[in-house]
What we know:
By secondary structure, the protein is α/β, with parallel strands linked by helices. The chain folds into 2 domains: 2-155 and 185-209, NAD(P)-binding Rossmann-like Domain (Rossmann fold); 159-183 and 213-255 and 273-284, Alpha-Beta Complex (UDP-galactose 4-epimerase, domain 1). Helix content is 41%, strand content 18%. The strands form 4 sheets. The protein has a 7-stranded parallel sheet, sandwiched between helices. Strand 2, helix 2 and strand 3 form a beta-alpha-beta unit. The longest helix is centred in the middle third of the chain and has 20 residues, at 125-144.
Amino acid sequence: MKLLILGVGYSAGFFAHAALAKGLQVTGTVRSNGKAERLGHAGIPTLVFDGSSTSTALRAAIAEAEAVLVSVQPGEAGDPALLCLATELAAAPALRWIGYLSTIGVYGDHGGAWIDETTAPKTSFRSQMRLAIERDWLALGERSGKAVQIFRLSGIYGPGRNPLVKLRQGTATRLIKPGQVFNRIHVDDIAGVLMASIAAPRPGAIYNVTDDEPAPPQDVVVFAAELAGIAPPPETPFDPAKLSPMAASFYGENKRVSNALVKREFGYRFRYPTYREALPVLLAGGD
């Protein structure tokens, strides 16, 4: 199978390597020649797509692709991939799966209650653009007959990006807001869910990609510190006035997100159902 990844960043990069290991032919895109060269040396043939224009090579890759993952950051006008490449994607003869990486942030705040894919999103300022992009991708699927799936990711972590790294760098914090929990997801499980979806496309599907245990962020930091033998940072009372607007907004959303649908529909078994399984592995691998 030929897979095209539009926007090879952190999560999509791990997915690319997982797909290569499964025998898929992978081509990616990035915004700069330098990064394209680095990914090429790492075994991922990569084209440059700056979000404003396309190329003969990219059009050819779309025409040959059987699956396309979209992991491009939204711009002010929407999704650059959709704006520039919709016609080519709709006409691609072999294309049978399109996945769009979104965020559980579209659900907004639910006061710590459990939610799932049937829960109506709350259109906060932060989520309006992302929801509009989700709708536009689903509409492309409907008019073209392509199977478009939306994947709403929780807080992403994995090698090089986790509480162990922050502790060693001295940037970890232990912000205390009573009752606050966050979901998280390991990059290996993002890759696993995407591979399961490619094997069983469902047009118009929306999936929450998140672990089993929404947890207070300070608990994760303490667990990581104990594993690494590092003193945890001191507790700091939550004060939105001392946070950036983005961080304050992040802490203003409290919910427990269910992953039951991906387990039920794909029979997917999470490699890292909670941070307790993942962090020891990351520690053993050098974080």
